[in-house]
Design a protein that fits this description.
It comes from Schumannella luteola. Pfam families: MS_channel_2nd, MS_channel_3rd. About 12% of the residues have low confidence. A hairpin with a 4-residue loop joins strand 1 and strand 2. Helices cover 43% and strands 12% of the residues.
């Protein structure tokens, strides 16, 4: 429907050309706009139908539509989750389709008004695409991951999930960011592009696993029967029956040690009721063990760490050996100058001579052996053995006067 426009002829005779422009160009632009609007409406309708089918299929696959049959009121979180999921998917797909239709319609309108502007517009579009491709990679990744998580129903409002960076209850699921509230009350904003795994404990079913330690000498079959009867009786009560999906099971002995035998009891419950069932079941099992006079042994062990733990390892300490006996060497007195022959030793008031020995001048005989002043016999040592006599020294011969000269 487009016609070539001659600007020279328009200025020469503007009125006929203006009439041709007003008749043909606006009509072509109007047709393009109407077709774009109709396409958007049809695409939005198809998107809503597809989203609803995907959501319903996932719910049936996860087996979460049987709550009404068991008499459980539908939680408001389920409605919020469904509405939020539907709005998120619908908004993203609608925005994508709308952006695509608007871009195509704009190109057609520009081409209708002036065909020469198409080349420049294509260059601008290519530049914008390259800029978005390099500068908005993280945003595109976040949006795509959020879109697939919402479509596949990997998580929703009220679910207890483990996303790796954060663990807690999902409060909001966005296209780019997911909000997680942990047990301490901290609100985490996790980008969808950083989520590599999703561990959801709120979908399908959960399992309560209880390990009970009993003494090694206890009657294991009797204790197993009593514990299982307690769990089955709790499951049959009207208050707790709706929270159990199956009857509790006693899996038997989980481990054996010198102090205790560990028994494992399990129960399959609804996801949101796992903790409540586990707490009540622990309390009842404890009462049963108390009635049977079965005391749970202590399985705690003290483990030293640090230098204390390293010192307790065999081989870390050196071997303990008895020290080798050593012989004491007798102390030798420093040699003193030999007194002149016939000179008496100098004795102080305490009776000590110059060498520090006590005794009188007459307590030693000519041979140098000390004598007892009372009996005149040679004195004995500390051990009672007699002291060996000294060997007299041979006097030197006097030097001749010739050698002195």
């Amino acid at each position: 429907m487009t016609t070539d426009w001659d600007w020279t002829a328009f200025w020469a005779d503007p009125w006929p050309q203006l009439g041709n422009f007003l008749v043909h160009k606006p009509l072509s632009v109007l047709i393009i706009v109407v077709v774009a609007v109709l396409l958007r409406l049809v695409a939005t309708f198809i998107i809503k139908r597809v989203v609803n089918q995907i959501v319903n299929g996932v719910k049936k696959k996860q087996n979460v539509t049987d709550t009404a049959a068991l008499g459980i009121a539908v939680s408001p979180l389920a409605a919020v989750r469904t509405v939020q999921r539907t709005r998120a998917i619908g908004s993203v797909l609608t925005n994508v389709v709308t952006a695509g239709i608007v871009i195509v319609a704009a190109i057609l309108v520009v081409n209708t008004l002036n065909e020469n502007a198409t080349a420049a517009f294509s260059l601008i579009t290519a530049a914008l695409g390259a800029g978005l491709g390099f500068g908005a990679q993280n945003i595109v990744k976040d949006v795509l991951n959020g879109l697939f998580m919402v479509i596949e129903d990997q998580l929703g409002v009220g679910d207890v999930v483990d996303l790796g960076p954060a663990t807690g209850v999902v409060e909001a699921v966005g296209i780019r960011v997911t909000q997680i509230r942990d047990v301490n009350g901290m609100l985490w904003y996790v980008r969808n592009g950083e989520i590599l795994r999703v561990g959801n404990v709120s979908q399908g079913w959960s399992r309560v696993i209880l390990d009970l330690a009993i003494p090694y000498e206890a009657d294991v079959p009797l204790v197993q029967e009593a514990l299982l009867d307690t769990a089955v009786h709790m499951q049959q009560e009207p208050k707790w029956k709706r929270l159990f999906l199956e009857k509790p099971e006693m899996w038997g002995i989980e481990s054996i040690s010198a102090e205790a035998v560990v028994l494992r009891l399990v129960a399959k419950t609804r996801p949101g009721s796992k903790e409540d069932v586990a707490r009540e079941l622990r309390l009842r099992l404890k009462r049963t063990l108390d009635e049977m006079d079965v005391r749970t042994p202590s399985l705690n062990a003290i483990t030293l760490s640090g230098m204390e733990g390293a010192a307790s390892i065999r081989g870390a300490n050196p071997p303990k050996t008895a020290p080798l006996p050593t012989q004491a060497t007798p102390t030798q007195k420093p040699a003193t100058a030999n007194p002149r022959r016939g000179a008496k030793p100098v004795v102080d008031a305490a009776g000590r001579d110059a060498d520090g020995e006590t005794g009188s001048a007459d307590s030693a005989d000519e041979t140098g052996a000390p004598r007892d002043t009372a009996s005149g016999t040679p004195a004995s040592g500390a051990s009672g053995a007699p002291t060996s006599p000294r060997i007299p020294r041979t006097p030197r011969a006097p030097r001749s006067p010739e050698k002195d000269d």
